[in-house]
Design a protein that fits this description.
Order of helices and strands: HHHH
Number of helices: 4
Structural class: mainly alpha
Largest sheet: none
Distance between the termini: 38 Å
Number of strands: 0
Length: 98
């Protein structure tokens, strides 16, 4: 509903964001900040953009809402590929892979 009717019902969008999106982004931000403090993650753009970290999850959710069973998507593969890309950008360059 928030995708199709969000402009007509901003209160519903705000509620959904506050209940689900904001806590997810806050948890990701805390996780990355902890990794930066411990020296595991680089202090770069990805560390300041939790939306980027969660984007594959949101992509899969929106895809499934829009296309349901007509255009299947391998959500697990997309999320795993995204994690690989993000971790390659976040992890300190010490010659080791995460």
């Amino acid at each position: 509903m928030s995708l199709a009717e969000g402009t007509r019902f901003p209160e519903a969008v705000d509620f959904y964001h506050g209940k689900f999106i904001a806590p997810t982004l806050a948890a990701l931000t805390a996780l990355v900040e902890q990794g930066v403090k411990s020296g595991e993650f680089r202090q770069d753009a990805a560390a300041h953009a939790p939306d980027v970290l969660a984007s594959s999850i949101f992509h899969v959710a929106v895809w499934r809402l829009m296309f349901a069973g007509r255009k299947p998507i391998d959500g697990k593969a997309i999320v795993e590929a995204h994690i690989d890309l993000v971790m390659s950008g976040l992890v300190q360059r010490s010659g080791r892979r995460y």
